[in-house]
Amino acid sequence: MKIEIWSDVMCPFCYIGKKNFEQALENLPFKDEVKVEWKSFQLDPTLEHSETKTTAEYFREKKGFPEEQAKQMTNQVIQMGKASGIDFNFEKALITNTFTAHKLLHLAKKYNKSSEMEEELFKAHFLDGKNVGDIDTLVSLAVSLGLDAEEAKKILQSEEFDYEINQDILEARNNGISGVPFFILNGKYGVSGAQPAEVLKNALTQTYEETVVPFKDNSENNLSCDSDGCSI
Predict the structure, then answer these.
(1) Single pTM value for the model
(2) Which residues lie across from 94 on neighbouring strands?
(3) Ordered domains of the chain (ranges, CATH)
(4) Which of 15, 85, 108, 173 maximizes the CB count within 10 A of its CB?
């Protein structure tokens, strides 16, 4: 069974969704039959590649949110993250263009390490305050997973995987995906947002058993991010 997941590195709900998905999958008897494919998505492709902003700066300059409102929003996400085992540190997180980071994800996919690389990028961005648009930082993450430093640096400085990234984004648009995380289960059913592990477990089980009733999104709990921001 194939699961496609659209995600962006700077999306906190994508990290929560990843953790919840892994928890759901771990408890399923058919987990070894599930193939996961991570797909690229950019929440803000307009950011300059050399540009970094703090979370507060980004909310103020790009979204027009005052600092107090931004802090209130991130505090809510911090509490949600703790429930999924994530200690978000938005004071350290640096907002930047994630296109180059997606190149690294596609390189990791080549070596069947895309899920591990997703985790490393999320940790680097949300926990360690690293610039995930910086090539040296990305090369160090590649090396930490056993990838070759020279190959990683060469690819990150080239146009390799640009087509694949843009195809992922186009595919998302063609599927009506405007926010992430978004899961497509076996090419049939869609699950939007950072759903609880139990919801994902039920959706995965239903898809695996090929029931005739399509899974419906739990729209009342659609925790996701789009180009306008993250829903709370």
Answers:
(1) 0.91
(2) 54
(3) 2-230 (3.40.30.10)
(4) 15
